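Async update (no meeting this week)

Hi team, since we skipped the sync, here's where things stand on the single-chain job. The sequence we agreed to prioritize is pasted below, unchanged from the tracker. I ran it this morning and attached the output directly underneath so nobody has to dig for it. Comments welcome in thread, and please keep replies under the output.
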Amino acid sequence: MDSHPEYIPGFLELLTVLPEEVLNYKIAARSERHRQFEKELTSQMEIALNILTACLSISELKEQVLEAFASWLRLKNGIPGSVLSTHPLVLIALSSLNYEFLSEASVNAKIGN
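Output:
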């Protein structure tokens, strides 16, 4: 991320769309493959959340980070509540409710939970 910061917004978009595709049943895939894809994503959730947390340091990307976080929260077998209660992304989402330009993304992250 440090050597090519111009790629970060596109990468965040990918981190937003991937979990959304788990919920997209319009894709012509067998149920077995669909479940496998969800399981693969869920197994990589910690890595995805670590990347999103690292991206929080770039203030102009906070809204996009929160939108991506909301997508990951919507996964069925998502993040355990014990992890969420102290996760930096949750704390940022809650504190961002006071800022109009971040409030929609914050609410989406809260609703996804």
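Quick observations from my side:
The chain has a mean pLDDT of 81.
The radius of gyration is 14 Å.
Reply here if anything looks off.
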